[in-house]
Design goal:
By secondary structure, this protein is an alpha/beta fold. Helix 1 runs parallel beside helix 8, helix 3 runs antiparallel to helix 4 and helix 3 packs parallel to helix 6. The longest helix is centred in the first third of the chain and has 25 residues. The radius of gyration is 24 Å and the shape is globular. It starts with 5 loop residues before the first strand and ends in a 7-residue tail after the last helix.
Length: about 475
């Protein structure tokens, strides 16, 4: 630990993915780095985001899989009575304990990495004392400074007017990830990536789920064919989806059997007012940058009307030597984007040639069931850009491995320029978040459909559907 007016090559304010990546990458390059984090390092992603959410979704996957064991001829028996069907139950508290164990293990590993690279970690709340001088004030009043300052304070769940979080009936993502029981009826306000993941989790573990989305389709930004494939699968799983709605407010549901039932009022797409009675409301309408009460006001660091710090492609703010990365800036709020932005910032600090992040091509992964993943242009975006394109779609229902594992819902869609490179890959289906890696390489290396179609994909695998979809664009597909 440092004290007083200690000076470093780089001071990083915030220990989430953007912050710790900047610290680790800078330290690996020989810089003397200080990292200021008021809690344990890891940020939203590790503690109340990516990692805990995916652990709970994996719990849901196991629960769903065991529930369908009889489809494979496997009889789940009650204890002591082999072969006799038992009652499937979920102890969410056990899953929460497992989740925390994973978080603790990853956090300790990250702490060890930072220590091994001689990053000085200040476990303290930090605020900007003087941005132009790149000084940060710690909770005890002492200050540290750097030749460069990297802002990486992250984000927090965005509230919805009239739906203040109360941690019992109106829940943010933070509270959902700490639940020790499954509400019987759940309304998810917001049908984006996080909302769909929560909807998928709750329906898998036995809740009745309704998604309320203001826009015309859930998963806005996802290619329409990939999004519709998810909607069809959601409908089969009895997730009710209402799009084009306007949520009005909520009140106590008098006369309902549940003590804490909540009546959600909304206007549907036809303009009629509706009431939905649930046991919990999950508000999932995005995250806002954590720029309040950190010393940004009057600091000279430019902030836009939404509260995001303004940066150029090299993550430089309006003040020389001050950078901002991760959820603090108006770029995709993804941990891997924060990693990439941190590397760009540190390379610029070092005076090296940094390649700005191509946000249009970064991979996205949505871990609902079925999974959704994509990179590059949607078909609509490609056409709007004036590209002369070909499109190929293949369905997992025709894939042997998908049928074997009992996951036939979904598609692989490739958008490519005619006689040119692949510009977009969109997957809805089993393990889409892993399969997108090949699509990401294809889009970023500007591979053509013929390049991919000539590659040998193992059989039977899920990945061969990508090869089949590309091969079809050459006019000589095998199975479709």
């Amino acid at each position: 630990m440092g004290e007083g007016a200690a000076h470093f090559d780089v001071v990083v304010l915030g220990g989430g993915p953007g912050g710790y990546a900047a610290a680790l990458y800078g330290a690996a390059a020989g810089l003397n780095v200080a990292l200021v984090e008021e809690s344990r390092v890891g940020g939203t992603c590790l503690h109340v985001g990516c990692i805990p959410a995916k652990e709970l979704l994996e719990t849901a996957t196991v629960f769903r899989t065991v529930g369908h064991a009889a489809d494979f001829g496997v009889n789940v028996g009650a204890p002591g009575t082999p072969g006799t069907p038992g009652t499937l139950t979920l102890d969410l508290a056990v899953s929460q304990t497992r989740k925390q164990g994973i978080i603790d293990r990853l956090t300790k590993g990250l702490e060890s990495l930072l220590k091994g690279r001689k990053v000085t970690v200040f476990n303290s709340r930090g605020t900007i004392a003087h941005a132009a001088d790149r000084r940060v004030r710690l909770a005890d009043g002492s200050e540290i400074s750097g030749d460069a300052l990297v802002l990486a304070m992250g984000s927090t769940p965005r509230a919805l007017p009239g739906f203040d979080f109360d941690k019992t009936s109106i829940l943010s993502s933070d509270e959902v990830l700490a639940l020790d029981h499954v509400p019987g009826r759940v309304a998810v306000i917001g049908g984006g990536a996080i909302g769909c993941e929560f909807a998928s989790f709750f329906t898998d573990v036995g809740a009745s789920v309704t998604i309320l989305e203001a826009l015309p389709q859930i998963l806005t930004g996802v290619d329409v064919d990939a999004a519709n494939a998810a909607v069809r699968a959601f409908k089969k799983r009895r997730i009710t989806t209402h799009t084009g709605v306007r949520v009005l407010g909520h009140s106590r549901a008098d006369g309902d059997a549940a003590d804490n039932a909540t009546a959600v009022r909304y206007v549907d797409a036809s303009g009629a007012e509706q009431v939905l009675t649930v046991d919990a409301v999950v508000v999932s309408v995005g995250r806002r940058p954590r720029t309040d009460a950190v010393g940004l006001d009057g600091s000279g660091v430019a902030v836009d009307q939404r509260g995001f710090v303004t940066v150029d492609p090299y993550m430089r703010t309006s003040l020389e030597g001050v950078y901002a990365v991760g959820d603090l800036v108006a770029t995709p709020q993804l941990a891997h984007v924060a990693f990439a932005e941190a590397i760009v910032a540190i390379k610029d600090i070092l005076g090296e040639d940094a390649v700005p992040v191509d946000y249009a091509k970064v991979p996205w992964g949505i871990y609902c069931h079925p999974e959704v993943a994509f990179c590059g242009m949607t078909e609509a975006q490609a056409r709007e850009a004036g590209l002369d394109i070909d499109v190929s779609i293949h369905h997992f229902v025709g894939n042997g491995r998908a049928l074997i594992i009992g996951e036939p819902d979904g598609i692989v869609k490739i958008v490519a320029e005619k006689n040119g490179p692949i510009v977009g890959v969109h997957i809805t289906g089993p393990w889409a978040t892993e399969l997108i890696a090949e699509g990401y390489l294809a889009v970023n290396w500007e591979a053509t459909a013929a390049d991919v179609g000539a590659l040998v994909h193992a059989h039977p695998t899920l990945s061969e559907l990508f090869g089949e979809t590309a091969m079809a664009l050459t006019g000589r597909g095998l199975h479709g």
